[in-house]
Amino acid sequence: MKQKVLVCRSLFPAAIERLAEYFEIDYHDRDVPLVPADLAARLADKDGAITLLSDRIDSQSLAGATKLKALCNVAVGYNNLDLAAISRAGVIATNTPGVLDETTADTAWALLLASARRIVSADKWVRARQWQGWQFHDPWLGNDVHHATLGILGMGRIGQAVARRAAGFSMRVIYHNRNPLPVADEQACNAAWVDKKTLLSEVDFLVLLLPYSPDNHHCIGRDELALMKPQACLINVARGGIVDDDALIEALQKRKIAGAALDVFENEPVLDPRFFALDNVVLTPHIGSSTRATRLAMAMLAADNLIDALHGRRPPNLLNPEVWDARQSITKESAP
Ligand code: GLV
């Protein structure tokens, strides 16, 4: 008999076909999240599930899921998963790192350039038939990207992909991580480690690429924004909650920094309405990994993780290896 899996949201047919070779699928074939009660009820008789970043998995959703062995998230970020609760329930969890690095780095650059050169506001102005003729002192004087200082907070794989692209703009690249990268990796992206205060005070463009955790909740707040230069611009393609949106709105209103470009927000998709009145912020709807090829690669990787996990093979992107190891030792002990 095939094992049963829940797919929490509409995916590409190729991923569903791959899963259907191995599993009986309960498919929520809509591009909206399951409500929590529905999610918990549908997990109750499942061996595994494919979750999306909008599915909150915690002790409540797992309460009745006694057969559940694996949850495979279609995202690199996994702050939607309460990993401690999932591990306590003996369930393994996986994510999809690697396949979205270059696409997300492209998004960060698209936002950086749009913000520096005020592309979105200029486009709106042209469409509003405001353009009367070329002006030397046009309202769209922006800031140079070339030869500026790019700062990256959170220098993982995506941060390094963002940094590598800066060579084409002859930029100086500095970054802050808890630990500096190995020298060879720093050299590959021509980036230098600095402390957080130096990073904030020297950047022209600050790209946030930290994973969200309670430890870095509001790690960019009033004090941090106050250290930035008035011509600096903040780009967030990581997660809402890393930035204190209230403090950022105030900094943008008072022009304490020049601009921001945000793909993620606290409480998304509900945005603080004050963002809409600002002309120095670019707003996009969490599209960092959103190309057809990359979203397909993410879905296929999550499917492969689930197929491995439910067939006794260690999945490549385990988030809680201790749960896997504990399960293997129980299997060995109970072998005849
Ligand atoms: C997208 O935000 C992801 O974490 O994959």
Explain what this protein looks like in three dimensions:
The protein is α/β, with parallel strands linked by helices and 336 residues long. It has 2 domains: 3-98 and 292-334, NAD(P)-binding Rossmann-like Domain (Rossmann fold, 3-Layer(aba) Sandwich), CATH 3.40.50.720; 101-283, Rossmann fold (3-Layer(aba) Sandwich). The protein has helices spanning 13-20, 36-43, 59-62, 83-88, 101-116, 119-127, 157-165, 183-189, 196-202, 222-227, 245-253, 292-309, 321-333; strands at 3-7, 23-27, 48-51, 70-73, 92-94, 149-153, 172-176, 191-193, 205-208, 233-236, 259-262, 281-283. The strands form 2 sheets. Strands 8-7-6-9-10-11-12 form a 7-stranded parallel beta sheet, with helices on both faces. Strands 2-1-3-4-5 form a 5-stranded parallel beta sheet. Helix 1 (13-20) runs parallel beside helix 12 (292-309), helix 5 (101-116) crosses helix 7 (157-165) and helix 7 crosses helix 8 (183-189). The radius of gyration is 22 Å and the shape is elongated. The model has no long low-confidence stretch (mean pLDDT 96). The protein binds glyoxylic acid.
